[in-house]
Design goal:
Layout (H helix, E strand, L loop, with lengths): L8 H12 L6 H14 L3 H10 L4 H8 L3 H10 L10 E2 L8 E3 L1 H9 L2 H4 L4 E4 L3 H11 L6 E3 L4 H8 L3 H13 L1 E4 L2 H6 L5 E4 L9 H8 L8 E2 L2
Parallel strand pairs: 1-7, 2-3, 2-5, 3-4, 5-6
Length: 227
């Protein structure tokens, strides 16, 4: 979203001089370059972690950190911060034929082999396609999910205070009626969705011999299977 920032007369004159000198094509380019230089001097993983500690959703904090899912989760754990993911016990799967997943769900269930096993029943927004492709690289598996475009994503992101990818999942789930989320914080904010379920519920639809050994490779506690 475009921002209007008051920088003061001195900095405004400096930006004008930089543009007039030919070093930059516009004041906006000056600001972008200044931000890039600033961010290169800061450990953005720490900024993302602090955002998470202040209540940010996991994927938004990860986007702020600017690193991969694996690196950010490992950084959180090494910093003594346990990420809130999934649920402690595995509930029954929701009675639906189509499941819309959030970004964290794509990352976790992809690594567990659940996406591959249930690919015909999972639908994700176009904004998450790159995440699926990265999971394919990590797992070495081709995952043939159904991708669907959805409108109004940016307005949903602003309304809920979440990332574009998270907003896309929520908007698509609002269309289909069900969000299967691995991030409890996103689930709590998905007020426009009729029903929200824990992503671990989908584990019951896949043989434990597929996902249980893989779970032990993740820096996360394994959920309990009850009943």
């Amino acid at each position: 979203m475009p921002s209007c920032i008051e920088v003061g007369d001195y900095f405004d004159e400096v930006m004008e001089a930089l543009v007039e000198s030919g070093l930059y094509s516009s004041k906006a380019e000056v600001v972008r370059d200044a931000l890039r230089r600033l961010l290169s001097s800061i450990d953005m993983r720490l900024v993302g972690l602090r955002a998470y500690q202040r209540g940010s959703t996991l994927w938004r904090a990860l986007r702020i950190a600017g690193v991969s899912f694996d690196e950010f989760i490992s950084f959180m754990v090494a910093s003594g911060i346990a990420p809130e993911i999934g649920c402690r016990a595995i509930p029954p799967p929701p009675p639906a034929s189509i499941y819309v997943l959030d970004p964290v769900g794509i990352e976790i269930l992809g690594r567990l082999g659940v996406l591959k096993s249930l690919e015909s029943r999972i639908i994700v927004p176009r904004e998450l396609e790159n995440i699926v492709r990265l999971v394919e690289v990590v797992t070495g598996e081709t995952i043939n999910l159904r991708f669907e475009s959805v409108t109004g994503v940016r307005s949903v992101a602003r309304k809920l205070g979440v990332s574009i990818e998270e907003a896309a999942s929520v908007a698509l789930a609002a269309k289909h009626g069900l969000l299967v989320a691995c991030d409890p914080r996103l689930a709590a904010r998905a007020s426009i969705v009729r029903r929200v379920a824990c992503c671990y519920s989908l584990l019951r639809l896949v043989d434990e011999h597929v996902w249980r050994p893989r779970f032990r490779l993740l820096p996360l506690p394994e959920p309990r299977v009850e009943g």
